[in-house]
Amino acid sequence: MWRDHLTEIIIFTLLFLLVSGMGFVAARWRAPKDINHLDEWGLGGRSFGGWITWFLVGGDLYTAYTFVAVPALLFGAGAAGFFAVPYTIIIYPLVFLVLVRLWSVSHRHGFVTPADFVRKRFDSPTLALIIAITGIVATMPYIALQLVGIEAVLKTMGVSGESAIARHLPIIIAFAILAAYTYQSGLRAPALIAFVKDSLIYVVILVAIVYLPYKLGGWGSIFDAADAKFDASPSPNDGITLNANNQLQYITLALGSALALFLYPHSLTGVLASRSRDVIKRNMSALPAYSLLLGLIALLGYAAIAAGVTPLPGATEGTVDNNTVVPLLFEQQFPSWFAGIAFAAIGIGALVPAAIMSIAAANLFTRNIYKEYLRKDATAAQEANVSKITSLVVKIGAVACIVFLDPQFSIDLQLIGGVIILQTLPAVALGLYTRWFHRGALVAGWVAGMGLGMWMLYQIPNPATKRAHFGGSAFPLEKLGFDGSTKTIYVGLVAVAVNLLVAAIVTLILRAAKVAEGVDGTTQDDYFADEGDPRLVPDPRESTEGESAEGEAAGESVEPAPKV
Amino acid sequence: MSESETPAAPAGEVVSRARAKDHSPWNWLLFLPIVVPLITPLFNADSPRLFGFPVFYWLQLAFILLGVGTTTVVYQMTKKRG
């Protein structure tokens, strides 16, 4: 019953209201001359410095779902769930090498989305449309999953009702508030809220990793308890270390997830919102602090084993919801006021990425569908307006997913999301280095990669949840023709390899057939442009007067600003 | 890297110098934190334990320092000097 959790609910609500207020005030924070410009609303004026970028990107990549689901994985399967740590180590050098180029070319050309870049680079609105739709489809279930994170907390606090609507009412209210301040403040809202969210998470986790071992007899005995549990379980693939079967899966999943994460539109939004190449590069040395945090949070899954936590029942009869183990652990081991803070940290943790993701999806729709196909002469103010409205639609869609569909459906879609977003790798990430691929071949590779990825995911059963299809992302090598092999591999990486192969072969064919390749709208130098270098699109901070002032502002912006 | 930068330098010159730095050999160092965390035989064991953590966990957490160290070194060695 919720009455037993009154303290927790009060603290949760107070902190939630605090950040909601901040979300609305954010519109005036680092006030733009005109928020009705997509660069302002959707990218915070492309002006964020080191600290803001650190909180924003950290709050963006490490979502509430991550904080709930990764420990749940360790709780359920052991070492295999720890892939989140190598995955979030690998991502930063990749960003350092690759995404700074995207930042530069976007700075020069005023790109807001990865599809903007692809359109200019490969001179192909069709390819850009495919990239945009892939991004939107991959992002939507990710937003819905943030709700799963909040729900795990609400469930633990006993906030639940009989009917579907009553049970989801708190989430609907939370998302309505989130939608309202995102609409008003754009990217500034999650950037400001991220300060509170991350501070709460850091405090909660630092306390937890000192206090829990003290109560549970030290880390040594926590690991021993986990070891004993996995030894006793009938499943061959769990344990506190990997076995011969799942090492390949571990490696490919870590690498594939890192490649997918930096292709997700919301990560790119965080990167493009920063002020300069320097800000990004310096952040790549500072962001791993979050990886340490994630690693420690992951180990709370073992602490839950040692503390004897039993997860709450799942949505369907006879299943358990492992996502509740971390909230339950806090509830059982800590005084209720501290549990309330922890729950608020997870709850608010869901709002920051949900806001950024909806902004990223909205920008994709506006730039690559609305402006490209529906209204070619849209002004900057119209673009911003369409994006604002789309961000509302995206959030309503995410809530509807959770209220009307089985949450498992969102989890499945998220799993698919990682595989499909990887299929944009040849066009977006390799496109930053080379224009060797033919635009038609990139489309063909995308089709092949998507098809194969979907087929492989469909083939994977999950014995734990008794599902025949979409049961996970570990594909048995045996089905690929390696007879007798018991090893598994991450679907996404296989699919993107096939994608690349097809793209390469078709490129050779199309080139031999002399099919038109279009004109590359970027130059070599664009990939190294930095803060203060001339832009081809005027800076909205200098020109906010609309079309009439554009010529004048363009003249101004050619002058290189003094460097620090 | 020995060239000094003046704010008045023409845009083209600034850009070409930026390119030279972008292609610095220091960047190769970044492959270390991309590859090492993926070599599971390095760390897939229980002992030796450190503060109760099996090597599988403490060594992977230590790789975070490898990531921080290499990105910091590469940033410092390739950044523009004002």
TrEMBL record, chain A:
- What are the subcellular locations of this protein? Membrane
Broad class of the protein's primary localization: membrane
> What membrane topology is given?
Multi-pass membrane protein
Give start-end positions of Basic and acidic residues composition bias: 532-544
The alphabetical list of record keywords is: Membrane, Transmembrane, Transmembrane helix, Transport
Low complexity: bias regions: 551-564
- Record Pfam families: SSF
Which positions carry the signal peptide feature in this UniProt record? none
Q: Which residues cross the membrane?
A: 6-27, 48-68, 74-100, 127-145, 165-183, 195-214, 248-266, 287-309, 337-365, 386-405, 411-433, 440-458, 489-510
CDD domains, alphabetized = SLC5sbd (cd10322)
Q: Where is this region: Disordered?
A: 523-564
Family, per entry: Belongs to the sodium:solute symporter (SSF) (TC 2.A.21) family.
Descriptive protein name = Solute:Na+ symporter, SSS family protein
Q: Which organism is it from?
A: Plantactinospora mayteni
Taxonomic lineage is: Bacteria, Bacillati, Actinomycetota, Actinomycetes, Micromonosporales
From TrEMBL, chain B:
Q: Which keywords does UniProt give here?
A: Membrane, Transmembrane, Transmembrane helix
**Chain ranges passing through the membrane:** 26-43, 55-75
InterPro entries named in the record: DUF3311
Q: Which domain of life is it from?
A: Bacteria
What protein am I looking at?
DUF3311 domain-containing protein
